[in-house]
Write a structure and sequence with these properties.
It contains 16 helices and 8 strands. The protein is mainly alpha-helical and 487 residues long. It has a two-stranded antiparallel sheet. A hairpin with a 5-residue loop joins strand 7 and strand 8. Helix 15 (400-412) packs antiparallel against helix 16 (420-438).
Length: 487
């Protein structure tokens, strides 16, 4: 007869983990910047290691993002009663998605077991929603306007280094080529699509216009005779990130990057005929690139890019494969309840593609949401994005970068489910929407650091108090910032 329900080694690990989880809860409650660094750092570590590595085995594998996501949602749910999120339609819709996910997980655990339901829901639903809600409920006094862009650019730099290291080891190959490493077939692309999208979004954060700032009296404006755009270090870094995205050959990320570029061109402030000038310059660059490719100037790399592009045109392309799977999943019979609130987690995604049985997730977040949270959950997701976009759009040029990266997310969801990195950006957008409603972002970024939501300078009469949102959801007629950085 065993005296302990688990072996001594597992028990020791559990006892060691409890103080660590307590420390993490304190960090998530008091230091949002460190928490964001941990959340993104865990994703970089997973890419560097070639996949998630379990930190604890207790009948199920517990990964670092599981622990961080648990801390994030615990702190977020503790904040919810004091944030008056019901006044923000986007945040209220996000909470509705959390409730639907919990209900679907409980139904799945009862029908198929906790492990099956948990494995089905934890990455693309619990991780994504927990991180998003954590940032969306952050105190308005937190310096997130400075922290998130800095940590995001650091994450992109880490992915760029991993990409360069992978190419130095294996070389650049077409996307449909697979390499054998130690007898195991691996993807020829050194980092996954999630990392490639981070690089593209980092480029947009660097390229997107910031709020204009008055030059110092002793500084000469070197922007040209008309104060036109200048090429600086931010632009060069953005071009480097975009070049890496092109060579990584994640085709969905190509489309997302193109749509973000189009959104940037439409939303950015422009004078006179600047839009047409920039469009003409872009067309000229594309024409010269096509000409150089035609004469073979890009060598083997150009051939790899051509092979990747041709693969998307065939009937056996990965996108065509996904479309066939989507059709089979949509044609499956379901009850009215399943149409409204989805089937329970753990019920599987079986469909037949080309005569073979496929069981992986749908590779479409909109369909994924509909299958597990129903049409109600899909509507809630669309409300989150629509309301957040609408509130950010009121700030004009100050929030162009945030709206541009949201476009990239919406395009990505056509072929992939939600990645944890994207939860950081979506939560930051929700937080900025709260900030805009409350009267403007606290703090000013340091020089040289891109702030995608820098405040527009507006004069405030000194004799009239400014109405701001307290962290308890009430309104205060005081011009001061809320005190504290806590829960």
């Amino acid at each position: 007869m065993r005296l302990l329900p688990v072996d001594p080694q597992t028990l020791l690990m559990l006892l060691t983990a409890l103080p660590l989880v307590g420390l993490l809860l304190w960090v998530f409650a008091r230091h949002c910047g460190i928490a964001i660094g941990l959340l993104l750092g865990a994703q970089v570590w997973a890419v560097a290691m070639g996949g998630q590595t379990a930190v604890l085995e207790i009948g199920v594998s517990v990964y670092p993002t599981d622990v961080l996501g648990l801390c994030a949602i615990c702190v977020a749910m503790a904040r919810v009663p004091r944030r008056n999120l019901t006044a923000h339609a986007g945040s209220a819709a996000l909470l509705a998605m959390v409730v639907l996910t919990a209900w679907s997980t409980l139904r799945g655990a009862a029908a198929f077991g906790l492990q099956a339901a948990g494995n089905d829901s934890r990455v693309y639903f619990w991780h994504f929603l927990a991180i998003t809600l954590y940032l969306a409920t952050a105190p308005l006094s937190s310096p997130l306007s400075r922290v998130v862009p800095r940590v995001w650019l650091a994450t992109a730099a880490a992915y760029a280094l991993l990409t360069a290291a992978g190419w130095a080891d294996r070389g650049v190959h077409a996307a449909n080529a697979y390499l054998a490493v130690d007898g195991v077939t691996v993807d020829s692309r050194p980092v996954p699509a999630a990392a490639a999208l981070v690089l593209a979004q980092a480029a947009m954060l660097l390229l997107a216009p910031r709020a204009p700032a008055a030059p110092a009296p002793d500084v000469t404006d070197r922007g040209g005779p008309s104060g036109g755009p200048r090429v600086n270090g931010r632009h060069l870094a953005a071009l480097l990130f975009l070049l890496l995205v092109l060579l990584l050959q994640h085709r969905t990320v190509w489309v997302a990057t193109a749509m973000m570029g189009l959104a940037w061109w439409v939303l950015r402030p422009a004078r006179g005929g600047q839009r047409f000038v920039s469009a003409g310059a872009g067309a000229l660059v594309l024409s010269l690139t096509a000409l150089l490719y035609a004469v073979g100037a890009f060598g083997a790399i150009g051939g790899s890019l051509a092979d990747s592009f041709k693969e998307t045109q065939g009937t056996r392309s990965t996108f065509a494969w996904r479309v066939l799977g989507w059709q089979d999943l949509l044609d499956a019979p379901r009850t009215l309840v399943q149409w409204l609130v989805g089937a329970p987690f753990g019920s599987g995604y079986e469909r037949f593609i080309g005569g073979g049985l496929v069981t992986v997730s749908p590779h479409d977040y909109y369909l994924h949401i509909m299958l597990r949270l129903g049409l109600v959950g899909l509507l809630a997701l669309l409300v989150v994005y629509f309301q957040t976009w609408r509130r950010l759009a009121r700030a004009g040029a100050a929030t162009v970068a945030l709206r541009v990266v949201m476009v990239g997310q919406l395009v990505l969801f056509v072929s992939y489910s939600a990645f944890s990195e994207q939860a950081v950006l979506l939560g930051f957008c929700l937080w900025q929407a709260r900030v805009r409603t409350a009267g403007g972002p606290p703090g000013t970024p340091s020089p040289g650091v891109p702030d995608p939501a820098a405040p527009m300078p507006t004069p405030v009469p000194s004799a009239r108090p400014v109405v701001r949102e307290r962290e308890d959801g009430t309104l205060s007629k005081t011009g001061g910032r809320p005190k504290g950085h806590g829960v």
